[in-house]
Amino acid sequence: MRIVIVGEDAGRAGEFEESLSYFDLGWDVQWLAEPDAALSLGEPVDVFICGLRLGAVPGPILLSQVSALYPQAVRILLLDQGEDSASMQGLDCAHRLLSRPLDAGELIEAVDSVAELRNVLGSEELKQAVGRVGSLPPPPRLYLELSRLLRDPDASNAAIAQMLSQDPAIVAKVLRLCNSAYFSGGREITDIRAAVTRLGHQQLLRLVLASEAFGPTQLAGKEREAIQDRALRTSRLARRLLAGPSAELAATAGLLAEVGKLLPGVSDGSEGSTGPHYAEAGAYLLGLWGLPMPIVEGVAFQHRPGRLKASGFWVAGAVHVAASLVAGAPVDEGYLRSVNVLDRLPQWRDLVEPSAAQAA
């Protein structure tokens, strides 16, 4: 694993590499003082890390240049505490965001997740295709921050509402969705704290994720709205097919089942289309964002859950059933028979919700 770090205090290199040595990872870590040196490395790079500001060269600009030279490299941007939201909005060139100063443990966790991702989705064509995308959908910053906050059992609805209020655009989208036919309880919700109370933490978390993941894209407005509509219906159905914590994983995977369609140069699955399939491309993007592997696998194997090594009916199976039923596509009954749930299919068909247009 070759890791290149640009612009960080080279005086920390010895201390940092000593921390890494305790884990006996065998990584090749290279520290570069000047951004220009990163453009003439020659050999392939697995992970590329830099800060938001590198003197005359902004970090996002350098990452864009690196993506053209080393499309397979995972690009990590380091942020200081208190980086303003305006700067954050332009971070569409990084796969992962980490805090400065760079922590060995956080880096190991991020790189390990990438290694696991490549074991599941190891196609070189896929890595190159996603890596070449000039403007990836940015990591869902608010979703990741909110996820961390919700791990605190003492997190209050007021604290959650305050965090969401950092981004008025997200607040507007969440309130719009909260008052839609899917979630409305009859009384209009006009403030974010009331939305937190109505939706509950996990539902709110998914709505924030939907708002960020399906933000500005190259898709036309109606096409994007149609994808988001299917995403919400698939998410709600997938959640009902599993029990316990697995239900939340299935709901999130269902929400993101079509996120790969937001990437240029991917196949939509129709005959004659070229490029990596949107399911695998979307899953690879989610893995780069750092979402849990069951969600990544659920998205990647949504059309062929039987190819996943895990036995039994789990996240990928739930997403397959939910996405197929919502889209009106055939369900793999042979797979359902193999995992002993085929008899439940008629009941699941009855759970499919109408589209937003039909409900209006």
UniProtKB/TrEMBL annotation:
PROSITE patterns: HDOD. It comes from Lysobacter auxotrophicus. The lineage of its organism: Bacteria, Pseudomonadati, Pseudomonadota, Gammaproteobacteria, Lysobacterales. PANTHER family: HDOD DOMAIN-CONTAINING PROTEIN, PTHR33525. Signal peptide: none annotated. InterPro entries: CheY-like_superfamily, HDOD, RNase_Y/CdgJ, Sig_transdc_resp-reg_put. Pfam families: HDOD. Residues 136-305 form the HDOD domain. This is HDOD domain-containing protein.
